[in-house]
UniProtKB/TrEMBL annotation:
Keyword hit for Repeat: yes
GO terms under biological process: RNA modification
MF terms (GO), sorted A to Z: RNA binding
InterPro entries the record matches: E_motif (IPR046848), PPR_At4g14850-like_plant (IPR046960), PPR_rpt (IPR002885), TPR-like_helical_dom_sf (IPR011990)
Signal peptide feature range: none
Keyword Repeat listed: yes
Pfam families with a match to the protein in the record: E_motif, PPR, PPR_1, PPR_2
Protein name, UniProt field: Chlororespiratory reduction 4
Residue ranges of PPR repeats: 5-39, 106-140, 168-202, 269-303
């Protein structure tokens, strides 16, 4: 073309941005100016996206100056693109300045500014702006709900969700993901059922979140139903849904189904491999988990820190101390992965369960960062197993600094002394517990799935309508076990 016009240049600039080649887009813009072809507002909307892809603040400010120069500073969608550009580069004050200077604003510019605050983690400013909006669309509501979800403010997210005048699939999925990310898995399943009742069909993102909730609750029957729904409705079994299914079946105790999904996947990424290795490890198939790790290497998939947590856990379950040490050392030597607290926790657990309590204590003291309660708790568990009161005392003292209100550690030490008839120490610990005012506030809980409903039970719980019948049955079972010769081990004597 001898004299390409502005539409041709705009098409090239937009095309290069679409193909993730922002530098070429900017070069064509310079070529366009040298050819005395004046830009339009569409030119600048593409250029701003190019600057965002480059994360180029100085180039972006230059483009901003050209927007003023050519008189497009009053164009709403150009200014909206600038708001988004500055917020993507963490320049929230510049975003707000552009927003305040706008002579006219539409719902998209308002939503973009709200989204900028959400991205910056400033939910107070986002909410103030949200409340000031003269008009809101579904995207605005979704943005605020997602912001609260990311900060773990489930109550505020739920309140907004319930107030929405209209919802789309993103709204439902955002709320389900909110509950899942904040470990409120039963609520996630309730919202999923409501979504279907309201006539919305789940997409891939929804399905992944729901499968994750099923995995954590052990809701195998519901997980199977969702898997069947996937197959009947032509969903693509990609790496995301695939890894979620592998994890769900493994956590629900159906390792055969987990392996079946894994081997049927045409494409496998690191998440899929990590899920199956963890599944094998949790079920006690340590050698198979290690073999799967080697197979992953053969497929040219590089492991990450999560992979090694599963590998070290597998070694712990099987008592493979030498193999665990070798794999732990290979992290930094072969794969250049720096061990984190979780990896040290696995190693302390491995050494402690094997009775190498001195080695475990030495490893803790050699760590470059401060050990947490999980690490000291693993050492204390090993002390209980091998009846090492000396090191147990050290672990409990550290744990009482980290978690002073946790009664479990004192209880464990107290029971250890009781087992060897050291009643003086038992009395001292009981007095210390009373003086410190420590009590068990958060009992452990279990989930049971019956007829597609999830029931949660805690110790001494009487909230279930059939609790009287449940306790009668438990008492009967207890009597039958005693008649059969079962004698319970010494429990808590608090």
């Amino acid at each position: 073309m001898k004299e390409p016009n502005v539409f041709v240049y705009n098409a090239f600039i937009k095309g290069f941005v679409h193909c993730a080649n922002p530098r070429k887009a900017l070069q064509f813009y310079m070529r366009m100016l040298r050819a005395n072809v004046f830009p339009t507002s569409y030119t600048f909307s593409s250029l701003i996206k190019a600057c965002t892809l480059m994360l180029g603040i100085s180039v972006g400010k230059t483009v901003h100056g050209h927007i003023w120069k050519y008189g497009f500073d009053s164009h709403v969608f150009v200014q909206t693109a600038l708001i988004d550009f500055y917020s993507n580069l963490n320049k929230i004050s510049e975003s707000r300045r552009v927003f305040d200077e706008m002579r006219q604003r539409d719902v998209f510019s308002w939503t973009t500014m709200v989204s900028a605050y959400v991205r910056d983690g400033d939910l107070c400013s986002a909410r103030r702006l949200f409340d000031e909006m003269p008009e809101k669309n579904i995207a605005t509501w979704n943005t605020m709900i997602d912001g609260y979800a990311r900060l773990g403010n489930v109550g505020a997210a739920k309140l907004l969700f319930n107030e929405m005048p209209a919802k789309d699939i993103i709204s439902w999925t955002t709320m389900i993901t909110c509950y899942t990310q904040n470990k409120q898995f039963r609520e996630a399943l309730y919202v999923f059922n409501d979504m279907k009742t309201n006539g919305f069909s789940p997409d891939e993102v929804t399905i992944s979140s729901v499968i994750s909730a099923c995995a954590h609750l052990g809701a195998l029957d519901l997980g199977k139903e969702i898997h069947l729904y996937l197959m009947q409705n032509g969903f693509n079994l990609d790496v995301y849904i695939g890894s979620a299914l592998i994890d769900m079946y493994a956590k629900c105790g159906s390792l055969d189904r987990s392996l079946s999904v894994f081997f049927k996947l045409q494409e496998k990424n690191l998440f899929c491999w990590n899920s199956i290795i963890e599944g094998l490890a949790v079920h006690g198939f340590a050698n198979e988990a290690l073999a799967m790790f080697d197979r992953m290497e053969t497929e040219k998939i590089n492991p990450n820190g999560v992979t090694f947590i599963s590998i070290l856990s597998a070694c712990t379950h099987a008592g493979l101390v030498k193999e665990g040490l070798r794999r732990f050392q290979s992290m930094s030597r072969k794969y250049f992965i720096s061990p984190e607290l979780e990896h040290y926790g696995c190693m302390v657990d491995l050494l402690s369960k094997a009775g190498l309590l001195g080695d475990a204590l030495e490893l803790i003291r050699s760590m470059k960062f401060q050990p947490n309660a999980v690490i000291w708790g693993a050492l204390l568990g090993g002390c209980k197993l091998h009846r090492n009161l000396k090191i147990a005392d050290i672990a409990v003292k550290e744990l009482m600094v980290l978690e002073p209100s946790n009664s479990g550690y004192y209880t464990l030490l107290l029971n250890m002394y009781a087992e060897v008839n050291r009643w003086t120490e038992v009395t001292k610990i009981r007095v210390a517990i009373k003086e410190l005012g420590i009590e068990k506030r958060c009992p452990g809980s279990s989930w049971i799935e019956m007829e597609r409903k999830i029931y949660q039970f805690a110790a001494s719980d009487q909230s279930h309508p059939a609790s009287e019948e449940i306790y009668l049955l438990l008492a009967e079972l207890d009597g039958q076990m005693k008649l059969a010769g079962y004698r319970p081990q010494l429990g808590s004597i608090l």
